[in-house]
Structures are given as structure tokens and as C-alpha cells.
Amino acid sequence: MASSPCGNSNFDSGLEIKTRSVEQTLIPLVSQITTLINHKDKPKKSERTLAAIHRVGQAVNVAVGRFVAVGEAIASENQELKDEMGQACFEARRAGDAIAQLTDVGSAMQSQSDSQVSVFSDRTGMVKAARLLLSSVTKVLVLADRIVIKQIITSRNKVLITLDKLERVSTFQEFVQIFSQFGNEMVEFAHLTGDRQNDLKDEKKKARMAAARAVLEKCTMMLLTASKTCLRHPDCESARINKDAVFHRMRCALEQVIDIVTEARSCGESKVLPTSIYNSIKDFKSSVECLRENLYSLTPQNMASQLESLVERTEDFTDSAYTSHEQRQAILALCQLVRQDTQQLVHAWAEAQSAHAKEATEEMEVAVLKTCQSISDLRRKLHKVAVGRASDLLKVHGEHLPLRALKAAGAEGNLEGVAESSRTLTEQKEQLVETCRLLCHISGTEPLEITCIHAEETFHVIGPQIISAAQTLALHPSSKIAKENLEVFCEAWESQLCDMALLLKEINDVFEGRRDDKRPYLSLPRPGKHSANLKTAKAVKLDAEEQTSMAKLGLELRLLSSDVDSEVEKWEEQEHDIVRHSQSLASMAYSMYLFTRGEGLLKTTLDLFRQAEVLSEEGLQLCSSFRTFFSQLVDEEKSVLMTQIEKLVTLCQQLQMGAKTPVQGKTATFQKVDSSIQMSRNLMTVVLSLIPICNKLHKKYKSERTSLGSPQDWRERQDASPRVKDEASVSSKNTNGFGVKSMEQHMAALNLLESK
């Protein structure tokens, strides 16, 4: 074979892969092609090895043919992609044929008399064919991914149309009918966007998507009660303002989702993330440390500019009316110290350059260390101020006194009382908004910065909505729907405070090095429904004697939480659903442990029962992830594990029912607390037993899986495309997603021959 059957190709190989499913689909193919190319470097091979290589090459070609059949079926259903998909499929088929031809060793074997034959002299041809195959397969996958984006856009458009209808309804009967349709469309949209969020590679986009989806989730209930209130009181201006704000926020969230999946930016999203103090400090410190290796990596003017920009951002702390005099003076003193140390560094730097030194002098090394130390001290101080203020605010506002006052004044028809409580709530809102801004500065990761911004925007928006809902109730104190509407908005506020507490824990974890960037973002809002059934429950605190009796149980829960964290950190794939849900459970269990000590963010028994209910729901989601994982196992492995899963499901259901069961009296409440913590402990014990087993099996199956496909992603996409009915079509039952089960077997045979 003197020349490649492929020839040259100008096919675009610089495609950006934005989703994990596409990336994971390509990894096995890259591995297989690399193996074939590497065999080109070994001119002498046994007949058995040559036969195995031949089978692999043929299997690749057959698999590519089936893969192309799926791509062509997708193209026939989506005319806008037909030309591009057709070209990509043509190139993939051509590359597959080339690889089959290059690995066809039959003629070469017959022409050699020696038992050791020399083949595969055309390494260049194999490399070209491999590049073309990878490029074209990637193009097919990326084009198919556009179908997923199209589905999300289509779903969003359906939601928008129904949303417009809801906004214009004039009767309750019409509203109920349209809202039912709206609910179904929102469920579909939630599934599509949830899958997309989990599939995104970019952590910032994932955080933005999670924030937008959280807004939609919360606003759906707000939209229901606000619309009903407006229909009941059509002439009430505050009810109309309340309703309009919900519809506007939902539309903005829907647009943000589309901006993320299409990578477009609407007018409202034109701004970029502001540079945080954390990033400024990191960049400045990096510049300083670079001088050790290269004295000419930047100029003194650049360093001075970086420092002044950093110091300027600390004004968000020093100019705040809520920063104490002592804190302000400490921050200013540290800024001045950084300036002085930087000036000494610049002086030593200039002397080293004058002496034509090739590397940092001893004096300069000392100056670098002092500058890095002072900038680290400044970062620690800013972190302490922001986190301390947030913790204090959460303690002060944990009793929700302004909300209670607003509800009471509204129910009494007391407009003056509503106005007075509104001023208190507005001041509280301003404090929380500013605190979120400070947390954003020191959060430590871009996804957490996005979550801080989301929290800031949520407080900023919900505050006025609560006030307008309270005004409506004050004007119509006997209206049950107006009272329910105010209750829903107050629950959203309380929920956001809980989410802020979780966000605070995440920021501390990152600062102390306990978590990396791939920490699941527990700070994102949870549905208000968790507390809906506990409205009439009385919130009480444990006394010292009760805390003592709870101490042993709480300690066991803390140890289990720590053990679960340790086990999930051993997983290579930190984005796996099992890992994410297990980390969430560990975080919640730790909060319950702190409650038994009279510490942490769960202040009352009502807080604990809400946490128990959320924990049980997270546990059920983990059960679902376990079941999905177990579907890959053989019956022998599955039988033992499924017993544990059923046990876990039962515990979750018991914990959920117990948390929802109302109790009266101190003794009954204490017994419910004891039961909730015991069941949580038992639940975590089962989770701890399952995680290491799953990790071991996950590694085993990951190492064995060398097929071309990503079955879950492609099976979902094939649902939207016509099935190819002949034998060359893809059958998920027989072909492991892409019809390359035989390739997996051939690769195993090839590896076995190599090891011998």
C-alpha cells in the first residue's frame, strides 16, 4: 500500500467539545485508533496478532457504518443540518473504509514465506485516516448535539406561549386549564435543561444554568398564587405589581437558559462577571512569584497598577456602613502593609536588574516572601469580615421577625403596620444584598461567585414582592388567597436564607481546602415545598439536658458524615450523580450533628424537621442514581446490592413520613427529634456501605468499556430521530449504543495477544 485511500482533507478538526457526553463518546475511539497507529511502529508481528488487528480494523469500519446510519437518520429529520451532517457522515464512512483497508493483512500474509511478516509500512496513511475519522465523528456528534439544543429552544417557546396566555386570562376556569398545560410544559423543560446542566463541561455555565432553573422552580408556585390573587382582586394595584414581577422574572430566567445553551447574550446578560478581590489577589500573587523565575516577566508599573486595582476593590468592604470601625482600620492597615512590602520588592527588583542578575537575588527572595505573606493576610482578613458578617446576619434574621410582623399587620388590615415592617424588611434586604456582594469577592471559585450573585439578585427581587403581597393582604384582610400568596413569598425568602447558609459553608470549605471547584453547589435554591406542610408546627429549641442526651447520636452522625465525605473523594469522576448526592447527604447530616450541639444554622426543631425532609428526598434521588448504576451490573453482583437499596428506600420513606408527621407537646417533639436523627444515622450507614462497592465496580466497568458510544446520550437523541430498520441500523439492545460490541471483544483479544 503505497498511498492512503483517504488522501488529504480540509475537514475542520478544531471543533470545540462543550458537553461531557460527546467527550466521553470520543475517548474510547481515540484509544482504539491510538492502538492501531502504535502497531504501525512494530513491523514484526505473529499471525495471531495480525489477525486480531485485522478484526479490530473491520470492527471499527462496521461500527462507523452503523454510527453513520444514525447520523443520516438525524439529518433526514432535520433539514437545516442535512448538508453538514451528510458531509460529516461521508467523511466518517470514507475514513472507516480506509482503516479497514489499511488493516487488511490477508494479501500481505500470503506473500510472505517467513512466519514473521512485515506489514503496515504506510503509517502516514493510518494517521491521516485516523485524523479524518476522529474529526468527522466529532462533527457528527456536535451536529447531533444541536438537536438537543433545538429541543430545549422548542420547549422554551412552548412555555413562553402558554405564559403569555396565563398573563391574559380573565376567569378562574380558564386559568386552571391553562396552568395545567403550563405545568406539564415546565416539567418537560425542567427535564431537558436538567440533563443539559449535568452534561455541560464548563462549571460557570453549569452554575448559571442551575441558578436560572432554580428561579423557574420557585417562581412557578409564586406565579400560581400571584395570578389567583390578581384574578380575585382585579382592581388591586399592589396585586398587579406583584404578579407582573413574577412573570418578568420567569421570562428573564427562560432567556438566561437559552443564552447558556446557545452561547448568545441578550441585553440583560451583556455584562460579564465583575473581577473579585479573590481573583485580583491570586493574579497579583502569581505576578510576584513569577519574578523568581523571570526578572523581566512584567514591569514595576504593571505591578503597581495591579496592586492599586486590588486595593480599590477593598473599598466595598471599607466603605460599607455595616463594617465596624475596627474592621475598617484593620483592612486599611493591611492594604498599607502590602503597599510597603511591594515597594521594597520593587526596590530589590530594580537592584537585581541593574546588576544584570539572571535570577532573583537573596534580598529579592525575602521581599517576594514578605509581599506574598502580607497579601495572604489581607485575603484572610477580608474572608473573616465577609463570613463573620454573613454568619451574624443569619443568626439575627433566623427568627424572621419582619416577616411575622408583615403577616400579622396584613391580616389585621393595618396599612401603617405593613409600611413600618416593610421599612425593616427593606433594611434587612439591603444588608443581605451587600453581604452577598462581599461573599462574591472572597468566594474562591467562579461557580460560587455566580451563586453569590444569584443570591444577591434573589434577595433584591423577593423583598419588594413580599411587601406588595403584604399590601394586598392589608387591603383585603379576609382574602384567603391573598394570605396564601404572602405565605408563598415569605417561604421563598426563608428558603433563600437557608441557601445562603449552605453557600457560606461551601465558601468556608473552599477557603480551608476541604473542597475543590467540583463541589456540588448546595447553595442553589431548593423548592419551597419542603416547608409547606410545617406551617402550623411550633418551632422550639432543645434545652441543655436534651442536647446532652442527643450528644452520642449526633457524634455518630458526624463520624458517618466524615466517612462518607472520605469515600466519595476517592472517586475519580467527581461529577458522578452518586458522588453529588452523597456529598449533599453528608453536608446535611453534618448540619444535623451541629444541631445536637446547639450550634450551626439549624436553630429550632422545625429547622431540623425541614432538614430531615430534604435529606430524605436527596436520599431517594441517590437511590435512583444507584439503580441506574446497578442496571449495568450482572445478576450476581446486582442481587446483593439491590437488597441494600431497598433498605435505603425504606429508611428514606420512614424519615420523610416522620418529618411530616405533626406532633404536640415537648415530650412528643423530643421523641420526633430523636427518631429523625436515628433514622438519618441509619440511612447514612447504608449509604456508607454502598459507596466504596460502587466505586470499585465503577472503575471495573469503566476500564472494560471500550465501545464507541455513550449509550445514555445517544439513546436519548435517537428517540428524536427515526430508527433505521435494516440490519445495519443501531439497536441499543444488541450493539451497545453504536453497534460496536464486537469491537470491544476484538480489542480485548488484541490486548491479550500483546500481553503474551
Automatic annotation (TrEMBL):
Q: Which UniProt keywords apply?
A: Cytoplasm
Q: Which Pfam families match?
A: Vinculin (PF01044)
Which InterPro entries does this entry report, sorted A to Z? Answer: Alpha-catenin/vinculin-like_sf, Alpha_catenin, CTNNAL1, Vinculin/catenin
Q: What is its main location?
A: cytoplasm
**Can you tell which superkingdom this protein's organism belongs to?**
Eukaryota
Q: Could you tell me where this protein is found in the cell?
A: Cytoplasm
* A single BP term in Gene Ontology: Rho protein signal transduction
Provide ranges: composition bias, Basic and acidic residues: 713-728
Region: Disordered, residue numbers: 704-742
Q: Which GO terms describe its molecular function?
A: actin filament binding; cadherin binding
Q: S-adenosyl-L-methionine: is it a keyword of this entry? A: no
Q: Name one GO cellular component term.
A: cytoplasm
Sequence similarity: Belongs to the vinculin/alpha-catenin family.
UniProt-recorded name of the protein: Alpha-catulin
Give the gene that encodes this protein. Answer: CTNNAL1
